[in-house]
Amino acid sequence: MAAEVVRARIDSVTYSSADHPSLSDIDLSVKGGDFLVVTGPPGAGKSTLLMTLNGIIPHYARARLEGSVSVGGTDTKSAEIYELAKTVGLVLEDPDQQLLAPTVEEEIAFGPINLGLEKEEIRGRVRWALDVCRLDRYAQVDPSELSGGMRQALAVAAILAMKPAIIALDEPTALLDPLGSSQLMSTVSKLNKDLGMTVIMATQNLESVAELANRLAVMDNGVIASIGDFGSIVSNTDLLERLGISPPQITRLASAIGLPKIPYTLTEAVKSFPRPSHASELGHRGASQTPSGEPAVVVKNLHHVYENGIEALKGVDLTISKGEVHALIGQNGSGKTTLAKHLVGLLKPSNQEAVVNVMGIDVTSAKTASLIRTVNYSFQNPDHQIFSPTVLDELSFGPRNVGFPDPDGTARSLLTRFGMERLADSNPRTQDRYTKRLIGVLSVLALDPKVLVLDEPTNGLDAKSAASLMKLILEAGVTTLLITHDMELVARYSQSVTVLRDGRVIKSGTSGEVLADAETLKSTWLEPPQVFRLMKLLGSDEPVFTVEEARRMFQGRDA
Fold first, then answer.
1. Is the domain covering 295-535 a CATH 3.50.80.10 domain?
2. pLDDT tens, N- to C-terminus, the chain (559 residues)
């Protein structure tokens, strides 16, 4: 039997700024070679638990730890963080909090150098980490110039290069494209199986770890609500969905049609599901509003070259109809965020012939401030747009500055809708990443723009919050450019899709047409939703992408 490598008996962890504990009554044992997934809604305590493992709590974070945490036989209270780093490596959920070197290569080398390794060993580990995290071509690039997803990959690479006995990862795939996530998971799994590295991963993306993890802990309100064998826990769809956590699509589908054995991997699902017996009867896919056909956004021949010489956009054309939800998808570094910033005037084209027109306004010559009521942008990283002293001030800032009659009322209405009234007087910058993401999106929605650009708006949100946010956007009827790696989100809410690869548009069409083109998606490190892949394996060519569409193929529309 494997030895115990983590033992946490935590009575409580309380941050100095909080009036109640973030963790309570934690009793956790992890054995060597375990792959433990920790899941739960935002604010459940996942990140706090991981920070107790390498000593950030109590040595660095302003938090009081009552109880004990032992890692590799060492009490984290009595050891320094640098000593614990030899045993446990932690990848934070916000990569910007742990990147410090001037180049990608030096960032990855920093840990191995401080472990005192030989030069050749350091070089070998750097090359290996660059390769597995798809960062080879960016070795000499400043990390601040990378996309959010690539910075997240770099943070993971820097920890992997140290090859600790225990690796703790906090939402490591949140900003990665699906197949980039798959490659990272494959590497972590190989280290787990071949080298016996213990993996503890906080994530809400249970689909990405279903084939890899052997244990699952579900957290809620600072306690471990359930822990055990991964398959047993993930099959409890009632518990997970009550907490706003999405089980894998095939698990939800199996539960919906009443299969006696609930699978959680595609391999199991193919053996468990019967052949579908009904036609899909698909109607109009995507958002409920009908686009007018009149263009709201027109982009032609757009090029952009950054100062470091990286050509991010290479002649991009894009048209979005008024009232449409249009998804923009592609691998990390494909140019999605660069294109989005042109639509709101944050970047200007590198070529004079480029056309960037939003609601009849020539964005290439307009001042950014003049566009605020017409088009607005919610950043991928909410820290890049949040600056006010309170949440209420943050949401009312825009409406107040453009002359809304009741800016505080507008802000409070949005807070009430998302059950966030209690946060009105709180500092937005001290909130968890998920709450900050909601604040960032709501502060833009408060301005009631004609066109809304959302960069990974549901990333890290629980299923309930994500659904509420998309419902609000759809009800507003605002033209929306949705940048996302979530193919289920694309299938459920978008009417049309544009695919970028290496700064060029390689496909544009309806969501059904694009999502069914598995080869094009694969070439951009994306893949269709899980139920579509299941139906293909079951012999169906129906363009089915959501659990509800698939359910009707097994039970009929009236079931």
1. no
2. 689 999 999 999 999 878 899 999 999 999 999 999 999 988 899 999 999 999 999 999 989 999 999 999 999 999 999 899 889 999 988 888 889 999 999 999 999 999 999 999 999 999 999 998 889 999 999 998 887 778 888 998 999 999 999 999 998 888 777 767 777 788 888 889 988 999 999 998 899 899 999 999 999 999 999 999 999 999 999 999 999 899 999 999 999 999 999 999 999 999 999 988 776 655 545 554 556 679 999 999 999 999 989 899 999 999 999 999 999 999 888 999 999 999 999 999 999 999 999 999 999 999 888 899 899 999 888 888 999 999 999 999 999 999 999 999 999 999 998 888 999 999 998 887 778 888 999 999 999 999 999 998 888 777 877 888 888 888 888 999 999 988 999 999 999 999 999 999 999 999 999 999 989 988 888 888 999 999 999 998 888 999 999 999 998 645 4
Cα separation, 62 vs 81, in Å, equals 15
Alpha-helical (H) ranges within 76-147 are: 81-84, 104-114, 119-132
Token pair, residue 234, equals 């993930």
The CATH number that domain 4-242 falls under is 3.40.50.300
Spatial separation of the C-alpha atoms in residues 190 and 212, rounded to whole Å = 10
Residue 355 pairs with which residues in a beta bridge? 300
Residue pair 373/403 in contact (Cβ under 8 Å)? The answer is no
pTM for the whole structure = 0.85
**Centroid of chain to Cα 75:** 33
Which ranges in the chain are annotated with CATH 3.40.50.300? 4-242, 295-535
Return d(Cα 492, Cα 529) in angstroms, integer: 11
Cα angle 459, 198, 1 (rounded to 5 degrees) comes to 140
